[in-house]
Structure formats: C-alpha cells, structure tokens
Amino acid sequence: GAVVSQHPSRVICKSGTSVKIECRSLDFQATTMFWYRQFPKKSLMLMATSNEGSKATYEQGVEKDKFLINHASLTLSTLTVTSAHPEDSSFYICSASAHGGNTGELFFGEGSRLTVL
Amino acid sequence: GENVEQHPSTLSVQEGDSAVIKCTYSDSASNYFPWYKQELGKRPQLIIDIRSNVGEKKDQRIAVTLNKTAKHFSLHITETQPEDSAVYFCAASGATGNQFYFGTGTSLTVIP
After folding, report:
1. Strands B62-67 and B56-59, how do they pair?
2. Sequence-ordered list of residues with C-beta below 8 angstroms from that of A14, at least 6 positions apart, any chain
3. What are B62-85's pLDDT values in tens digits?
4. Which residue of A7, A43, B16, B109 could cross-link B12, Cys pair, CB 3.0 to 4.6 Å?
5. Could you tell me which of A9, A95, A41 has the C-alpha nearest to residue B45?
C-alpha cells in the first residue's frame, strides 16, 4: 500500500515554544491530508483537513491559530503547534488518501508523540 | 460534522470465538465506512471497508455489515486468534466523502 511518513516520532519541548510536525506521502500525491490527535487509549479526533494550495479546514473547537497547517506541496503537509503548553501534549497522527480524498483508503503516518514540559 | 459511536469499548473473547463490534453514525450522506486495527504504539491499519451501495462484505475471517436505513454497521471477526488482540476503530466518511470521523474504539482481547 501507499506509504505516509511522519517526523519527528517523538518530540519534547519547553512550554511556550513551537513545534513543527511533518507528514509526507512517499509514493503518491496527496491533495488532501488529515491531522488527528489521539489521547491515551482514546479515539482519533479529527483536527483539520489539509488541502494542497489552500487553507486548511478545521474542525469545530480546534484553534487554527494554535495549530497551524501548511500543505505547500502534493507530498508534504506540516502541523505547527504554536506556543505549546502541557495540555497540548498528545499523540498527533496524519493520514492521506491515495485517491485524492475521495473516500479512498486512508494511510496513516507513524504518529508524533509531543510532550510539553 | 459526523458523529460516530462505537460499542463496546472493551471486549474479551476466548480464542476461537467470534467478536462483534458495532457502530452507528449520524450523517446519512456518509457513504464509506472503513475499519482500522491499531496495535499498541503503532499506526492504524485498514482491515476492511464497505461502501454504502453494499450491505455486506467478507474477507476471510473478517466481515462487515451495513444497514443504511438504521445508520449502523458492524465488524465481525470469526475464529479469533490472540494476534487479533488490538484496538479497533470504525469510521465514517462524512458528508463530503473525504473527512473520516472515527468511533471511540474497541479494545479487543483474545484469551488463549
């Protein structure tokens, strides 16, 4: 199947700093990528839909100024957690569809565990 | 957005028995329903999916059924094995067809 790579897998930062997480589709072009947040033993919560060349669509309750998403190319989307605080500590995971998001199979990245001290 | 509910949250079965996980969704426009398996510390992996024009789909020991009228779909695993132990998530595609909303997950334990 298609491969989605996410980096970094783990990151620890101090409160108040910003952290960037990258999501790459390695062998296909992804016009649409999705960013999820997963709490321990909880489900995947859709944060936003990242659209190549346009603004991301955020789910209700997700602060767009807090979680900046950039999808500058067909193979890369980035999530920047700005001014991170301990409550932002979580597992962030991206996904992409090899069919341009048209109800095709979703392929997930490895996830990034963010710990804010 | 779409609201997906999943039951049960935990499920323990004896090896060889069947396991059934049920999900309901709220948006009648959803037309794609995948199921994902997530092992501890790993990324979710698609195990089976069904589209709204089909009522049932089977792949070896795994089957999914869909009732569009009632807006619910179920995962059936037969002849369970210890390696089936994981967290299973259902999802619905939402009105736009390209935003996936996940259920709350079911932690399945298969007891040898």
Report:
1. antiparallel
2. A116, A117
3. 999 999 999 999 999 999 999 999
4. B109
5. A95
